[in-house]
Amino acid sequence: MPRRGVRAGALAAVFGVLLLLAGCGSPRQEAAFALRTRPSPTVSPTPSPTTPPAPSPTPKPKTTLRSTGPAGADTGGGGGGTASDGVPSIGNGTFAVAAGGTDVVGAGNTLVKYRVELENGITWGSNPVWTPASFAAATDGILADPKGWIASAEHPITDAAQHMSGASWSFQRVSGTDYSVRVLLATPGTVDKMCGSIGLKTVGQYSCRYSNVILINLRRWLRGAPGFPVDLNGYHTMVINHEMGHRLGFKHMLCPSAGTPAPVMMQETINIGGCLPNIYPFASDGTFIDGPFAP
Questions:
Q1: Which single residue of 68, 140, 145, 197 has CA 20 to 30 Å from 103?
Q2: In this predicted model, what pLDDT tens digit does every residue of 59-94 receive, in sequence order?
Q3: Cβ neighbours, 10 Å, residue 48
Q4: First-to-last CA distance in the chain?
Q5: Which residue in 187, 74, 79 sits closest to 123, CA to CA?
Q6: Residue 288: per-residue pLDDT
């Protein structure tokens, strides 16, 4: 019996040794093993920041408009309005310049620097009051219109009769003395006097252009042109584009064929000749709307 007890104790001791050899280690050993065998996390590379391409610079005009063409005025229609229509008939003949200016609009080769002015001494009465700033804003918007003269950058004009080859224009309003043209909003009496000084008869209602001066008649600026079927904003657009066209070198044009848009260089408010009213130099597709030149 004692030998059996010794043998049983020896077996228990051997079994204990085997458990120590084959069993789990201590908690500290397990943690160390886990740190050694844990897979490293996958790190995704941070993408390099992408620099957007720089915008292409707008081409600068190659020259500034200096020379002047022949004077022009829309004449030949009926008599002018009268003082009874409520339009101020005369100011004091001096002009206030719109302050500030604009960036260059358009990408045409020839830069036209225009200065906007409003006659002083106008008694407005019940009429809408225009200021140098508001007249400048209206003119700026018209000259920056995509169907205005800036469309010539993408659709240059070549016309041997006008001595033009690949002509295109851009525009910038200025307030200093370095300008290509003055755009003046003036009373009928002042327009008659200034345009009449070189023989142009504006009969109290028409506008004119001579030398580097564009005179916009206040009567039609406020009332529009009788019988010309566009709204007042449309008339503003037409008359600015028409008179600026004279400054660029264009003469009056005729209707090319009945039922087609009238060239903006037609005397549309006098005789539209079967054409459709039009207030822009260019069509929506970039076509220059022209016609035969008036004799």
A1: 68
A2: 677 788 875 555 555 544 444 444 679 999 999 999
A3: 6
A4: 148
A5: 187
A6: 97
CB 216 within 8 A of CB 240: yes
Cα torsion for 87, 92, 93, 94, to the nearest 10°? -120
Torsion of CA 174, 248, 90, 79, to 10 degrees: -160
Regarding pTM above 0.85, the answer is: no
Tokens representing 197?
């000084």
User: Percent of the chain scored above 90 by pLDDT?
Assistant: 69
pLDDT at 38: 46
CB half-sphere exposure, 110, CA atoms < 13 A: 20
Quick one: which of 241, 222, 233 has its CA closest to 183?
Answer: 241
Torsion of CA 135, 153, 148, 134, to 10 degrees: -10
Where does 23-165 have alpha helices with state H?
Answer: 27-37, 132-143
**Distance, CA of 95 to CA of 154 (rounded, Å):** 36
